[in-house]
Amino acid sequence: MTTAPQPTEPTRRPAVEGDAHLLELLASQQAALRESESRYRTLVEWAPQAVAVHRNGKLLYVNPAAVALLHGRTASEIVGKHIGDFLHLDDRQVALERALMAMEQGSSLQLREEKLMRLDGTIALVEIQSMSIQYDGEPAVYVVAHDLSQRQEDEKLIHQLAFYDALTNLPNRRLLTDRLQQALLNSGRKQCFGALILLDLDHFKGINDLMGHEVGDALLMQVAERLLLCVRKNDSVARVGGDEFMVLLETFAVTTLEAARYAEIVAKKMAQRLSEPYTLFGTHYASTPSIGISVFQEGASSHSDVIKKADAAMYQAKAAGRNTIRFFDPSMQAQALARAAFEQDMRLGLEQQEFVLHYQVQVNKQGQIIGVEALARWVSAKHGQVPPSRFIPLAEENGLILPLGQFVLESACQQLARWASQPDTKHWTVAVNVSARQFAHEQFVAHVAVVLKTTGADPRRLKLELTESMLVKNMASIVAKMNAIKALGVSFSLDDFGTGYSSLSYLKQLPLAQLKIDQSFVRNLLTDPNDAVIARTVVALGHSLGMTVIAEGVETAEQCQLLTAMDCDAFQGYYFGRPVPAADLLKLSAHIGP
Description:
Layout: H1 9-46, E1 50-55, E2 58-62, H2 64-69, H3 92-105, E3 112-117, E4 123-135, E5 138-147, H4 149-163, H5 173-190, E6 193-201, H6 204-211, H7 213-228, E7 236-241, E8 244-253, H8 256-274, E9 278-280, E10 283-285, E11 289-296, H9 303-319, E12 325-327, H10 330-351, E13 355-364, E14 369-380, E15 384-386, H11 388-398, H12 401-419, E16 429-433, H13 436-440, H14 444-455, E17 462-467, H15 475-486, E18 491-497, H16 504-509, E19 514-517, H17 519-523, H18 529-544, E20 548-552, H19 557-565, E21 570-572, H20 585-589
Parallel strand pairs: 11-12, 14-16, 16-17, 17-18, 18-19, 19-20, 20-21
Antiparallel strand pairs: 1-2, 1-5, 3-4, 4-5, 6-8, 6-11, 7-8, 9-10, 13-14, 13-21, 14-15
C-alpha cells in the first residue's frame, strides 16, 4: 500500500510567500488609507468654508473655519451641542427638517441661505449645503457653510452708494424720485394730496468758494440734521445735488388748500431752523434758504412735473429776494422756461462775442481823467441791450461768471495796452471787477500773469476791484493770493466799502491801494447826516492806512463839492459820464470838470 506524498518544503513555500504578499498589500492599502484620511482631514481642517458633521442634530465635528464663523474660541465650545442652538428662529424648523431629509435620503441637498446665531448673539447669513455620509461607521450629515456676511456688506454698500448721498447720508435724487412716484400712486388710491418742497441755500456758492469745501460740507451736514428735525418719520428728506434739498410730504389732505397749509407750516419751520447761526470750525456763519413748494395728486402731474414745479417755485422765491417761500403758480412754468432759454442765449452770446466793454471815467479833484472802470455790456442779437443787473446775477449762479470774467480781464488789458501808446491816455489806469468765484479759482494768479504777458499791458496801470464779502474768512490764503498778484505790479481796490464785513484788522492785513465809497452812501450825502459821516470816516480811514479813496455814484456838482471838501481823492459817476465804448471816451474829456 502506498501513501500520498506529503507536501515537501518546496511545495509549502509558495503558500507562505502568498500570505506575505497579501499582508504587504493590506499594509500598503492601510497606509494609503491613513494618508488619504490625513490628507482629507487636513483639507477639511484648513478649508476656508465652515464644515460640520452632526448626527440627529448633535454636532460631532466642526473645523476651525466653523469655530471662527460662530465666534468661538475652540471646537470644544461647539461639539456636543445641538445644531438647533445655532439656527435662527426664522430658519430653525426648516433647517432641522432638511437635516433629517439628508440622513433619510442619503443624498445631498441644494444650496440654501440661512441665518445662524453665533455664540456672542450676533447673526451670520450663510449659504448651506448638506449631504449624508458615514461617520465612525454610522450615518451622519456633512454640512458645508459659506459665510455671506461680506457679500451682504457689499450689497449694503452698493445700495447705499446708489440711493443715498455720501456726505449727509440722506436719500439722493434717485431714491427721492422713487418715493415720489410711490407717493403719487398712494395719493390717487387714497384720494388725497401730497406736497414736494425744494430748497436751495442762499449764497452757498460764495461760502463754498471763499471758505473752502471743508466748511461748505460741514454746513451741508448741519443743514441735513436740521431738516430732519422739521419732518415726521414717514416724510423723506433728500439731498439732490450741491446745496439743493427736497422734502417729500405724504399728507392725508383731501384738498389742495389743506395740503398747502401743512406744507407751508413745515416750510416755515425749515426756514426758521436753517436761518439760525451755524458754528463751523469755531466760526459763526449765517445762511438762509429759498423754498419752493408744489402740491400734487396722481393724475394731475407726473413725478417730473412735480419736481419742475417745485423748482420753478424755488427760483421764484430767489427772485423775490431770497430767504422766502413760494408755491408753484402756473405762470411760473413760463418764467422757468424763459429763464432757461435766456441762460442758453447768454452762453451763445459769449461764444458769438456779443459781450463788449464800456468804460466809465474816474477823475481826480482837478477834474482830470485818471482812469476808467471796465464794465461788461451785452448787446444781444435777440434781446438787444441787456442790463448788467439782469445777466450778472445769472452768470454768478450758473458759473458763466468765469468765462465772462476772463473776457473782461483780457479785453480790458488789450485796451490798456492800446491807450499806453497814446499821449493823452498813457497815464490812465483800468479797474476790473473780480467775482468771488473768479478770485477763488486756483489758476487765477497764473491767468492774470498770462494775460499781462500776452497783451503787453502795464501791470502798474491795472487795478483789480474786490468786494468786502470776498474777504471774510481764509484771510491767510486771500492775502497770499493778493500778494502774489501785487508782485506782478497789479494794485487792488476794495469796492463797495462800508456795505460788507470788513474790519480794521482786515484792512491792515490786505495789500490794498484804494478804498471805494459805495454809491449807497453818496446818494443821500447831502440829506442824510449819517451818510456824510460815513463818507468822511472812510476818507480819513483810507488816508490813515496809506490808501487813496474814490467815491462812486457821484451824480451832482454838489455831491462832488462836498466830497472834495472831505479830501476825497477821486470820483466816478454819471456827473462825469456814463459808461461808454473806448472810442467815445476822449470826447468826454473836454466836458469833464468839478
